[in-house]
């Protein structure tokens, strides 16, 4: 009885009670996020930061303890919850920078809710229970009033100082770590969030005036052709149509489920196109809008925030301006409101002459949060026909959306019957959504042919970003992926998207090109085909039709310092030495792997891109 009374005594102390509650939340976050998670680590890295907050409450506001403890509990719980949710999609640790995305959440609420596993909400259980007790229990409110006493200041001061020192000593050794997930694990999540708010940028300071194309090419290991490049002007004077496919991953090409072909139209297009099967996304926080930016500028996304928000006040050189200056009409098409992801500012910044959004496409035949891909393609091709009738070639971009996460397309759009084992899974929903998107793609191709545009148009098709986050998949869903791939689904599969280039009639050819490429390479590749010089356009990609090797700096979906080269995908650790290389064939770790030179060069290239874009003139 005496032991129980002592336990009860200590549990009535809010410092002890709320510490225990926070420990449970540390364990939940650690279990979801960190591999090889150890029992003691959350206590060593997480408790000191919590105790600093609790000591401040005890010392500075003893008469308002309960309200402040509840507030602190709610805030800290929300930080853990946000970290868990963000990691499940992006595989990174969210920081305050992501607050810029808050106004986008209502548009993608389906994606957010799909990531919610019921046990994640348990993290709020204590908070809800305590609020209910505060509202309905006189005894609980009496207990709260009884807390208005000062605990021993000397003891709390010592605990607070020691806890603060522990936080500093936990953070300090890992302040130079490149891998943000490693930093969060070693520092503790709350410590990391505070550190990230004040940490200096990992980018190098760059003298923008000294940046040259030759310097960029050298850092990438690219040697431009000495004479006329291969394929130069093969599609000169012809229309260029860029089709950006929502969440289209490369593993779908040629795949079937129980005899049902997933992407028959895409497969057929591969058979008449230049197909790049080792092609990778380079997007960041802005996902689809970032893909539009990278593809059209051949620059890299910012270290924090979406390019459409960070760079939309700039006069951005890129394909819309280059083609427009060479006599092309330019237009981009997107079925959502262009306000989404700040496209109303991004599109003028990129130099598009015209953009079409929800005002053209309306709410007709809605799939996800815009008109269906069928509507997008039907109304867009009508506009493209009008543009072609002017006698000038066009450069246009279509942004598909029907294959958007979480892939819950309406049943009227089902074009295939899922096997029972795939039903109700993210993998199954993804396959069905991409199968419908492929059906709509077939309608686009048919319409372009019917309007006489197909033979006179270079069609560039690629995926904007990954569709199946490896961090979101259950063990059952991973088994389904293994069934389709014949091996485990890895990061090298997740970030691998297709690129197809269908040349106009008379120049058309088809083959698979194994050259490593990324979205930043599309601009110089298309410019070469169109016979347009990029001598006045600083660019960070390279012409894939005149390349033998490549090096792709990566951001956001991989830790800082990560990159892809012909050796594989390098994922940084605290630095280069403890990083790991994933091979292309099976995603398994390969010995040796990438070079230190490419690691350093990748970081330099990202810093150069950041500095260059920031130095561009403001858009008038």
List the SSEs and their pairings.
Blueprint: H1 2-11, H2 14-33, H3 41-60, H4 65-90, H5 109-114, H6 118-121, H7 125-136, H8 138-145, H9 153-171, H10 180-187, H11 189-198, H12 213-220, E1 239-245, E2 256-257, E3 260-261, H13 264-270, E4 274-276, E5 279-280, H14 288-297, H15 307-310, H16 319-325, E6 329-334, H17 343-350, E7 354-356, H18 358-361, E8 366-367, E9 370-371, H19 373-389, E10 394-399, H20 426-450, E11 457-463, H21 475-485, H22 491-494, E12 499-502, E13 511-513, E14 517-518, H23 522-530, E15 551-553, E16 563-565, E17 568-571, E18 580-582, H24 596-615
Parallel strand pairs: 1-10, 1-11, 4-13, 5-14, 6-7, 6-10
Antiparallel strand pairs: 2-3, 4-12, 8-9, 11-12, 15-16, 16-17, 17-18
Helix pairs in contact: 2-3, 2-4, 3-4, 3-9, 10-11, 19-20
What keyword list fits this structure?
24 helices, single chain, Alkaline Phosphatase, subunit A, Sulfatase_N, transmembrane helix, four-stranded antiparallel beta sheet, alpha/beta, LtaS-like, LTA synthase family protein, globular, cell membrane
Q: How would you describe the overall organization of this protein?
A:
By secondary structure, the protein is of the alpha/beta class. The chain folds into two domains: 2-198, no CATH class; 228-547, 3-Layer(aba) Sandwich (Alkaline Phosphatase, subunit A), CATH 3.40.720.10. It is 45% helix and 10% strand. The chain is built from 24 helices and 18 strands. An eight-stranded mixed sheet has the order 7-6-10-1-11-12-4-13, sandwiched between helices. Strand 17 (568-571) and strand 18 (580-582) form a beta hairpin. The longest helix has 26 residues, at 65-90. The radius of gyration is 27 Å and the shape is globular. 46% of the residues are buried.
């Amino acid at each position: 009885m005496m032991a129980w009374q002592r336990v009860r005594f200590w549990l009535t102390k809010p410092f002890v009670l709320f510490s225990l509650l926070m420990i449970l939340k540390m364990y939940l976050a650690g279990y979801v996020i960190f591999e090889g998670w150890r029992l003691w680590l959350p206590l060593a890295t997480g408790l000191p930061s919590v105790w600093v907050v609790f000591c401040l409450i005890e010392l500075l506001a003893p008469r308002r303890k309960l309200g402040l403890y509840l507030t602190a509990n709610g805030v800290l719980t929300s930080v853990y919850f946000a970290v868990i949710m963000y990691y499940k999609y992006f595989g990174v640790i969210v920081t305050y920078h992501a607050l810029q995305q808050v106004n986008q959440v209502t548009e993608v609420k389906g994606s957010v809710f799909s990531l919610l596993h019921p046990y994640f909400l348990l993290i709020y259980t204590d908070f809800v229970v305590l609020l209910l007790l505060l509202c309905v229990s006189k005894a609980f409110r009496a207990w709260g009033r009884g807390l208005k006493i000062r605990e021993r200041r000397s003891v709390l001061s010592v605990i607070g100082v020691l806890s603060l020192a522990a936080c500093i000593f936990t953070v300090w050794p890992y302040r130079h770590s490149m891998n943000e997930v490693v930093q969060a694990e070693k520092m503790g999540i709350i410590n990391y969030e505070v550190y990230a708010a004040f940490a200096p940028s990992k980018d190098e300071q760059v003298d923008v005036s000294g940046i040259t194309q030759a310097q960029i090419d050298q850092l990438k290991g690219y040697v431009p052709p000495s004479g006329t490049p291969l394929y130069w002007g093969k599609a000169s004077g012809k229309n260029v149509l860029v089709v950006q496919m929502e969440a289209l991953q490369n593993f779908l090409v040629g795949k079937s489920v129980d005899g049902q072909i997933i992407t028959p139209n895409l497969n057929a297009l591969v058979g008449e196109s230049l197909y790049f099967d080792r092609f990778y996304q380079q997007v960041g926080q802005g996902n689809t809008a970032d893909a539009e930016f990278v593809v059209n500028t051949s620059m890299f996304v910012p270290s924090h925030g979406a390019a459409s928000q960070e760079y939309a006040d700039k006069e951005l050189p890129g394909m819309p301006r280059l083609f427009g200056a060479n006599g092309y009409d330019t237009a981009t098409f997107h079925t959502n409101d262009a306000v989404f992801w700040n496209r109303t500012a991004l599109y003028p910044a990129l130099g598009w002459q015209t953009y079409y959004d929800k005002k053209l496409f309306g709410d007709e035949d809605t799939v996800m949060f815009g008109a269906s891909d069928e509507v997008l393609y039907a109304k867009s091709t009508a506009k493209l026909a009008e543009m072609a009738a002017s006698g000038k070639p066009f450069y246009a971009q279509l942004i598909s959306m029907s294959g958007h996460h979480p892939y819950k397309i309406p049943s009227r759009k089902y074009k295939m019957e899922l096997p029972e084992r795939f039903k109700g899974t993210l993998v199954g929903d993804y396959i069905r959504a991409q199968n419908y998107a492929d059906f709509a793609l077939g309608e686009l191709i048919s319409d372009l042919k019917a309007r006489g545009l197909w033979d006179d148009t270079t069609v560039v098709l690629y995926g904007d970003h990954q569709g199946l986050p490896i961090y979101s998949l259950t063990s059952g869903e991973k088994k389904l992926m293994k069934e389709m791939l014949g091996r485990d689904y890895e990061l090298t599969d997740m970030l691998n998207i297709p690129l197809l280039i269908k040349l106009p009639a008379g120049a058309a050819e088809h083959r698979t090109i194994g050259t490593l490429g990324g979205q930043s390479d599309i601009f110089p590749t298309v410019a070469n085909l169109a016979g347009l010089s990029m001598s006045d356009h600083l660019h960070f990609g390279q012409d894939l039709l005149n390349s033998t090797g490549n090096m792709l700096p990566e951001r956001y979906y991989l830790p800082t310092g990560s990159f892809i080269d012909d050796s594989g995908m390098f994922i940084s650790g605290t630095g280069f030495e403890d990083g790991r290389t994933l091979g292309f064939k099976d995603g398994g770790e390969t010995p040796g792997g990438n070079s230190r030179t490419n690691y350093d060069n990748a970081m330099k290239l990202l810093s150069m891109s950041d500095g260059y874009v920031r130095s561009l003139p403001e858009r008038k």
